[in-house]
Every structure is written in structure tokens, then in C-alpha cells.
Design goal:
The complex is a heterodimer.
Chain A (H helix, E strand, L loop, with lengths): L16 H4 L14 H8 L4 E5 L5 E2 L14 E5 L3 E10 L13 E8 L2 E8 L11 E8 L5 E7 L4
Parallel strand pairs in A: 6-8
Antiparallel strand pairs in A: 1-2, 1-3, 4-5, 4-7, 5-6, 7-8
Chain B lengths: L3 E8 L9 H14 L11 E5 L3 H4 L5 H9 L6 E5 L5 H15 L5 E7 L6 H8 L15 H16 L3 H15 L13 H6 L2 E3 L2 E2 L9 E9 L11 E10 L14 H14 L8 E3 L5 H10 L8 H6 L10 E2 L4 H5 L3 H16 L14 E8 L4 E8 L3
Parallel strand pairs in B: 2-3, 2-4, 9-10, 9-11
Antiparallel strand pairs in B: 1-7, 1-8, 4-7, 5-6, 8-12, 11-12
Helix pairs in contact in B: 4-13, 7-10
Classes of the chains: A mainly beta, B alpha/beta.
């Protein structure tokens, strides 16, 4: 009988993360029409869009108002201090890219009339209380993209 | 519009299976066609496949024709795949139902499948973290356990719900699943065991959470007028309701009151022409223990905020006010996303036929509902079933 050969083939070990599984959005003008949000973040400001036609505060930022279809939107500064509405801690079950951060706190923060989810840095679950003040911080990724988080405000 | 009946169905063993996505499809297909004597795959003219994330879990898209090929079905009227995350299977039943009701289809299979165990658990968790708005919520690590953990935290704060009350849900559903041979989990879980299980996302321990599960299931739908040709005991679809409010956290109606579920319940009762007290079996979406407590409230079986007390009083058990999850729920049976709603429906059919183990049989049950929530509980889907035409 003819023998059939087994040949080993070589493949690249890794698929580059941003192509498939990057949780952080693409922020530049070529990738999104709300790149202004990220430019504002780089200046330390958490902002969103508000419709100048119907007055609706929109989160996340839009390019067209989902209430009245107007494109006449303005950027609103949400401020830097929020109130903790709910929180928990990711102890087990983190996705790729966040496994190294475990455990980390996640919260829902009341700010500028919105309820937004966010990482809560510089605290463990036991340190946090509903209703307490949290403050904006900006994190910068290795490629220069930025995102918002909050941290627990501690007495000086 | 024609009335529609389910005349048979089949499912795989659910669990952490040493089997591929394709293996699961074939196993469920075989039991499906064994369940009805005189319907063969070639008689089926339409197929709707509920599958939440085959692209991510098994790197396969365009799955409806693949299921058709493996099952030996050659669809000639309607073929599609439905995705509504945890309610993908219910979406499949809803569209198969609509197709048969309108005459677009005559013999339709609603199928559901999910292969969730992957070599790398973190990759599976990654898939589950793009369910919520990935750029604004998922990016913060917000997958289902932390979301429902915060829901539980607020419910405990606002209504005094306790972890013990939540654990009772897990104990109840695991108890029923010990009597369900295809359930993922076959062991009793005590309240104490829930507290001792690993903390996932406080206040939720591991046994407060339904699991990743591999499984597949299918049911066959035909016009009600034809149903007796295939079985003496069809199950009839009598109504439904579905509602959605918002998606990103800020868009939700409320964290602690599931307004879209209340809307879906009212629509279900209206279309099925039943009252909430006429429901004998409720297969509700207990993805987490807190979910089931909030479902007692939204279905109106108890007052808002009293879900914990409702189970403490023994009401959601067989023999209580309403038999909730006598199948074993998602907590006991596992949660193979696309297959879950099909599994619920199949169990209701078997309950009506008296084919389930006596310890979890709801005697003389005539009306049942199957409920699924999806995403951050912003979407709720319900179908009502009856033993009578």
C-alpha cells in the first residue's frame, strides 16, 4: 500500500486583536462621525449630543436625533462628577482583554441627567456605596485611543 | 389567519457536551423526526433556525441551510435564521408560527441550537460581552452577570429582597431538573450550596447564574386543522406578546421594574383570551435567580417588590399558586441560547401529554406560557400554549 504523508504546516500564532475582539470603539474621523466625543475626552470633558430641535438629550452621542430625525445637534458637557446608582465587581468570567484586570468594579453612574455604565477604578466592591460621589477619569490605550472611567472620590 | 399546533419535537442531551455544533444539530434532528410517525424531513417545507452566535462560537454563518442539509430538509417555502440572543429560539417559533398561520408554510420546523463550550472560556465570555451595546456598555466589562448583579442590588435596596430568597429559586429549579433527564444539572442545590458557590459578580454566586450549555432542539408546526393527522395530543399556540424598550443602559425603562415584560404579559393575556390565574405552567426565563423573582412580579402573580416573599411562601412550586419552571428552568437545564425556547416549548408539550416524570408533572395542566428575556432585559417575548384547540 502507498503510504500517505502527514506534513506539518505553519500558521501565524495570533490574529491581531483589534480586527476581531476589541471592545473599544474606533475613534478617528475616518471611522466614526462622533469622533468629537473622543476629542472632547482627550481634553478631559465627558460630553454627549443634545437635539436643538426637540431638546432630547441623547446617549450615546448621535448624528441624527432618534426622537425627531433632526441633524441639528449640539455637544453638551456632562461634568466630571457623578453619583453611584449601582455597582458590582467582575470576579470571574471576564472577556479577553479584561481577564488581567480581574477583579474590577463596574457601576452605573448618574451624571448630567443620564445613567451610564462605566468601570469604577481605584476601589474594591467592599469600598463602594450606592449614592456616593465618583469622578471622571480618562484612560488612554496603547495606540492613543481614549475612553472614560470613573473612580471613587476619597477624603483627602 | 390559521390556528397553529405543535405536533412533535425532539432535543439533545444538554450540558458540556463532547460534541460539535453539527453533532448537536444531527442528534436533535433525529429525535425530532422520531417524535412524529408520519412526517419525514422531506415533508417539511419551511425551516426557521434560532441561533444566537454561531459566527462567534463556531465561526459559522449562513446556518439555516446547513441545518436543513444535516436534517435532510429541502425547504421550498420559507428558510431563515433568527437572532434575538437569549430569545433566538422563541423568535424561531414565532416566525414559524406566523408562516404557518398566514399560509406561507404548511409544515414548518422551528429549530434551535447553540454550542457554547469553546477551548478558551475567556473567548466564550467575550462573545457574551457583545450582547449589550458593545461600544458603550460591553466595553466596561458589562456582560450578563454584572448587569443582573446590579439589577439584584437595586432590587434588594428598593424592596428588601434577600439573597436567601434568590437562592430559593436556584434550589427549586435544580430540584425539578433532577427529574429532567436531558437537563444539564442533575443534582440538588440547597440554599446553603448557593451561598458557598464561587462569587461571580456580587451579589450573584455561581448557582445564582444559568450556565453556558451545549444543546439543540426542534419542534414541528402545522395548521391546527391538520394536527390530528400527526398526533392525538397536539399543543396549540393561542397567543403571544413581545415588547422592547431601549437598549443601552440609559435607554432602559427601569432596572428594577421590567416594563416591557408587563406589556408583553398584557398582550399575551389579551391575544390568548386568558387570565393570568388560568396559567397552569409558566416556563420563564430564569437566566439569574433575580430574574425569576422579577418575573413573578411582572406576570402579576404577586405585588411589585414581593417576588422574594412569593417564593418564601411556596407559591411558585407545583401545587402552589402557579408552577414556575417545572422543567428545571435555565438554572437547572442550562441555557443553550438558541435552543432554550424550543426546549421550554417541547417540555410544555410533554407536560400536556403527561410524559414527564411524576415528581415534576403538573397534573391536568391546560394552559402554559413560555417566556424569554434577552439582552439587558429590555426585550421580553412570550408565547401562550393550550392543550385544547
Amino acid at each position: 500500500m502507498m503510504s500517505v504523508k502527514i506534513n506539518k504546516i505553519k500558521r501565524t500564532d495570533m490574529i491581531r486583536l483589534p480586527n476581531m475582539l476589541d471592545f473599544y470603539p474606533l475613534e478617528d474621523e475616518k471611522s466614526t462621525k462622533i469622533s468629537k466625543f473622543f476629542q472632547n475626552l482627550k481634553e478631559g470633558k465627558l460630553t454627549t449630543t443634545k437635539c436643538k430641535s426637540c431638546g432630547k438629550l441623547l446617549w450615546p452621542p448621535r448624528i441624527i436625533c432618534s426622537e425627531c430625525s433632526s441633524e441639528n445637534l449640539e455637544w453638551i458637557d456632562l461634568g466630571v462628577e457623578g453619583e453611584l446608582y449601582a455597582f458590582t465587581e467582575m470576579k470571574l468570567g471576564a472577556p479577553l482583554g479584561f481577564v488581567e484586570d480581574c477583579p474590577f468594579c463596574i457601576g452605573i453612574v448618574k451624571i448630567g441627567g443620564l445613567l451610564i455604565s462605566t468601570r469604577i477604578d481605584d476601589a474594591r466592591y467592599e469600598d463602594l456605596k450606592i449614592g456616593e460621589k465618583v469622578r471622571l477619569k480618562i484612560v488612554e490605550l496603547e495606540d492613543g485611543r481614549v475612553f472614560y472611567r470613573f473612580y471613587k472620590v476619597r477624603e483627602q | 389567519m390559521r390556528k397553529v399546533a405543535i405536533v412533535g419535537g425532539g432535543a439533545t442531551q444538554c450540558g458540556k457536551r463532547e460534541a460539535s455544533w453539527r453533532d448537536l444539530v444531527q442528534e436533535a434532528g433525529k429525535t425530532l423526526f422520531q417524535s412524529v410517525d408520519n412526517i419525514s424531513p422531506k415533508d417539511v417545507d419551511s425551516l426557521i433556525v434560532g441561533a444566537a452566535q454561531p459566527e462567534r462560537f463556531t465561526f459559522q454563518a449562513h446556518v439555516a441551510p446547513m441545518v436543513a442539509e444535516y436534517l435532510g430538509i429541502a425547504p421550498r417555502k420559507v428558510l431563515a435564521r433568527t437572532e434575538l440572543m437569549c430569545a433566538s429560539g422563541q423568535a424561531a417559533i414565532r416566525y414559524a408560527w406566523a408562516c404557518v398561520a398566514t399560509g406561507m408554510a404548511d409544515i414548518a420546523v422551528a429549530f434551535g441550537v447553540e454550542k457554547m463550550y469553546m477551548p478558551d472560556m475567556a473567548e466564550a465570555q467575550t462573545n457574551m460581552t457583545c450582547v449589550l451595546d458593545r461600544e458603550w456598555d460591553g466595553v466596561n466589562g458589562l456582560s450578563a452577570p454584572p448587569f443582573f448583579a446590579m439589577t439584584a442590588q437595586r432590587h434588594m435596596l428598593e424592596f428588601g429582597t434577600t439573597k436567601e430568597q434568590m437562592a430559593l429559586v436556584s434550589a427549586k429549579n435544580h430540584h425539578y431538573s433532577t427529574m429532567n433527564p436531558i437537563a444539564h444539572f442533575q443534582k440538588e442545590v440547597t440554599v446553603e450550596a448557593v451561598f458557598k458557590s464561587p462569587m461571580i459578580s456580587p451579589p450573584l454566586n455561581l448557582f445564582d447564574c444559568s450556565s453556558m450549555t451545549d444543546g439543540a432542539a426542534g419542534v414541528i408546526l402545522v395548521p391546527a386543522e391538520d394536527a390530528k393527522k400527526y398526533t392525538d395530543a397536539p399543543t396549540y399556540i393561542i397567543g403571544s406578546g413581545q415588547a422592547n424598550i431601549g437598549n443601552v443602559i440609559n435607554g432602559l425603562a427601569s432596572l428594577t421594574e421590567w416594563v416591557p415584560l408587563k406589556m408583553a404579559v398584557e398582550e399575551t393575556l389579551r391575544t390568548a383570551k386568558i387570565t393570568r390565574d388560568e396559567i397552569d405552567i409558566a416556563e420563564v426565563h430564569d437566566c439569574f435567580t433575580i430574574s425569576e423573582l422579577m418575573e413573578y412580579e411582572a406576570f402579576g402573580w404577586c405585588e411589585k417588590g414581593k417576588g422574594g416573599k412569593f417564593i418564601e411562601e411556596g407559591q411558585p412550586y407545583i401545587g402552589g399558586k402557579i408552577a414556575v419552571n417545572p422543567r428545571g428552568g435555565l438554572l437547572g437545564c442550562g441555557h443553550p441560547l438558541g435552543a432554550t425556547a424550543i426546549l421550554q416549548t417541547l417540555d410544555i408539550l410533554q407536560q400536556f401529554r403527561g410524559e414527564v416524570q411524576s415528581g415534576r408533572l403538573v397534573k391536568d395542566a391546560e394552559i402554559a406560557v413560555a417566556h424569554n428575556l434577552s439582552g439587558p432585559a429590555n426585550v421580553h417575548s412570550i408565547i401562550a400554549y393550550s392543550r385544547n384547540p
